[in-house]
Amino acid sequence: MDNLLTVPINDHLYYIGVNDRQTELFEAMWPLPDGVAYNSYLMTGEKNILLDLVKINTVSVFVEKLQEVLGDKPLDYIVVHHAEPDHSSAILNILDIYPDVKIVCNKKTVDFLKNYYDIEDNLIIVKDGETLELGNRKLTFYMTPMVHWPESMVSYEEETKTLFSQDIFGGFGTLDGGIFDDELRFDEYYLDETRRYFINIVGKYAKQALRSLNKLATTLDIKTICPVHGPVWRKNPQKIIDLYVSLASQEVQDGVVIIYGSMYGNTEKMAEAVARGVVHGGIKDVRVRDVSKTPFSYLLADAWKYKGVILGSCSYDNDLFPPMKFITEEFKHQKMKNNIWGIFGSYSWSGGAMKNLKAFAEDCKYEVLETQPEIKGAANNEDMEELMKLGEEMAKAILASKE
Ligand code: FEO
């Protein structure tokens, strides 16, 4: 039977990751309603190798797990695939216990280790494609720059065909008993949280992610994937590879998200009319989101997922409603290419919303639907018809794009 604290992956590799159910916002921005796992792995043999660490707030249970496998044996190496503090901030605690441990990293990681932790000694620097012999174990390293940080890299153990993929193939959500893909219901829960993780964390580097994914998928025979978040893939690694390739390519679905900003409900009513128009036009998958209430993490995920994105904003101080202004800035960073956009605006005296929505769409060089209702005060019957028309036009454009 598996030990209660650590889980064997093969005869010389153990899962020693931890769950974090305390942190409410990942990177202080992205909601974690169901937490997140920081995965770490211990490879044993003539030398003992720790692959990735955890965030400092979970260090005590992490050390407990590490020592449960190691017993009184030494820790010889730490591999830092990625220096972001959710995988590195426990490092000083580990160095306190194992001061002679050597740190395997690449030349870009050196700066991070120095600047975050004042670590400069006992470093082994690896290059892209280099194979390192660590006792009777061998790891080959591949650089994956900007997925997720400049220093990010992965490693591969040829003997077991295991890929240690750091942030790549990760997702939000704690591992609740099930560690492996065949021990949990991925599609029912982890799929959405993996999608949101990718879009929130890696989305703006999708091009680099696709390059790295193609490189790994075409050059390596991968039987097991050990990422630093989310399940370990031993039964069907191709499933997470395919999902990530699809996300990195921003493969959109036939659906529409309507994001509105409304202070007193008038613009919300307009959004409802647009939604009705979308359904009337033949698209059933429609989400209407209040930009003031739904965290932008979910709005980005919806916009990445659906072909149609419609933004509707009231005016505020002759400008966009501030939460809408914020989300348009975030959309600019995401560099989405596969959407059809729609816009509508409302105002009470001198406007501001529509002018700025148009400027946003022009800046991003987005394809925007022709019907662009701009409504003064509450929508009258004629306005409601125009809003419905916008929705119908969106549905028609989505259906036409498939032909
Ligand atoms: Fe999970 Fe980029 O850190």
Give a structural overview.
Residues 256-395 form the Flavodoxin-like domain. It holds the Pfam family Flavodoxin_1. In the N-terminal section; belongs to the zinc metallo-hydrolase group 3 family. InterPro entries: Flavodoxin/NO_synth (IPR008254), Flavodoxin_CS (IPR001226), Flavoprotein-like_sf (IPR029039), Metallo-B-lactamas (IPR001279), ODP_dom (IPR045761), RibonucZ/Hydroxyglut_hydro (IPR036866), Rubredoxin-O_OxRdtase (IPR016440). It comes from Peptoniphilus stercorisuis. The strands form five sheets. The protein has a seven-stranded mixed sheet with strand order 1-2-7-8-9-10-11. Strands 17, 18, 19, 20, 21 and 22 form a six-stranded mixed sheet that branches. Strands 12-13-14-15-16 form a five-stranded mixed sheet, with no helix packed on it. The mean pLDDT is 96. β17, α8 and β18 form a beta-alpha-beta unit. By secondary structure, the chain is α/β, with parallel strands linked by helices. The chain is 37% helix and 24% strand. The protein folds into two domains: 7-248, Metallo-beta-lactamase, Chain A (4-Layer Sandwich); 253-402, Rossmann fold (3-Layer(aba) Sandwich), CATH 3.40.50. 48% of the residues are buried. It contains twelve helices and 22 strands.
Which assembly state applies to the chains in this document?
single chain
Give the total of domains.
2
**What is the overall number of helices?**
12
Strand order of the largest sheet: 1-2-7-8-9-10-11
3D shape: elongated
- C-alpha Rg, in Å? 24 Å
- Shape-level CATH architecture of the largest domain: 4-Layer Sandwich
The set of bound ligands, ions and cofactors reads: MU-OXO-diiron
User: How much helicity do the residues have?
Assistant: 25-40%
What would the CATH topology of the largest domain be?
A: Metallo-beta-lactamase, Chain A
Question: How far from one another are the termini?
Answer: 54 Å
Q: Superfamily at the CATH H level of the largest domain?
A: Ribonuclease Z/Hydroxyacylglutathione hydrolase-like
Strand content: 15-25%
| Number of beta strands | 22
